[in-house]
Specification:
CATH class: Alpha Beta
Number of strands: 8
Radius of gyration: 18 Å
Strand content: 15-25%
Oligomer: single chain
Number of helices: 12
Structural class: alpha/beta
């Protein structure tokens, strides 16, 4: 595991001590408990445009953790984190519009609208003292939501996100991707999954993700991908007055220099031996790092 700052070394020391304690050894990774979406904790609120947003609300304790999934995913991807962190924190897990059990009747797909999905849930629950946690596209969503929620947010944590520093995708690449999506969505997803897992990834998790993402509503997937690709998160990152932390995989480089140049309080942590879905592929390490980050933030 490689870490990119002195503060990160201290956080990892906390994790290593915990891992060496009795009962701290990693356990075998299993496919996520997708049945979590049927939990009785699930509730619904309307976003600013009237789209229904489904979420889980579990546990108690501060800071409250609000989890946001990535593109063409859903809240079941955070099942391992809910089980772990609900023991000591209030945890809220959201399906963005067009994903999972949330509504599909959105006509304009933007990062601002996705941020408003998060804000609608936070406002409905009257949450304060919040740490936002977002995977992949969810990283852009949470920095947008942080701007909307102001001083309710005390920290922002991205999970394998901002590899390009949060900048928009080059236009020629956007056009290439949208053409592939329109022509063969399932094929695009299959190729995407093959590119974003590593050789040592659990095949059961890889195939679960492949099937789950391929089943996402195509219109919403295309709209969300366009919104994410055309969104430059740099201004939102620069406006953050709270710690901004990334827990990324080393399977792709991250533009740390761009993030350090724009974020006021930036910390980068890196996981090895995993692909894009860090919280699924090695939940024990991810949870330990997030636990250390929370201790540092609070």
């Amino acid at each position: 595991m490689v870490v990119m700052s002195q503060r990160a070394v201290l956080l990892l020391a906390v994790w290593l001590l915990a891992a060496c304690a009795p009962g701290g050894a990693p356990v075998e990774t299993q496919a996520p408990a997708v049945e979590a979406n049927g939990d009785t904790s699930a509730q619904t609120v309307l976003s600013s445009d009237g789209v229904s947003i489904r979420y889980d609300d579990l546990g108690a304790g501060e800071p409250a953790l609000v989890f946001v999934h990535g593109w063409s995913c859903d809240r079941s991807y955070w099942a391992e984190q809910l089980e772990h962190f609900a023991q000591s924190h209030r945890v809220v897990n959201i399906d963005l519009a067009g994903h999972g059990d949330s509504g599909l009747d959105r006509t304009v797909w933007t990062m601002q609208a996705f941020g408003e999905d998060v804000s609608a849930v936070v406002n409905a629950l009257d949450l304060h003292n919040i740490v936002l946690v977002g995977h992949s596209m969810g990283g852009k969503v949470i920095v947008e939501a942080a701007g909307q929620l102001g001083d309710r947010v005390i920290g922002v944590v991205g999970a394998d996100t901002f590899h390009r520093g949060g900048r928009e995708t080059p236009r020629e690449r956007q056009e290439e991707v949208f053409g592939q999506l329109a022509e063969d969505y399932a094929g695009f997803i299959s190729d995407f999954v093959d590119r974003t897992f590593v050789e040592q990834s659990d095949p059961a998790i890889r195939e679960w993700v492949r099937a789950d993402m391929a089943a996402a509503p195509v219109a919403a997937a295309v709209g969300a991908r366009q919104a994410s690709g055309s969104y430059d998160a740099t201004p939102a990152v620069a406006s953050l007055d709270v710690p901004f932390v990334l827990i990324n995989s080393d399977f792709l480089p991250t533009d740390i220099a761009h993030l350090e140049a724009n974020a006021k309080q930036f910390l980068y942590l890196e996981m090895s031996g995993v692909g894009h879905f860090v919280m699924l592929e090695d939940p024990e390490t991810f949870n330990a790092l997030l636990t250390a980050v929370l201790a540092d933030i609070t």
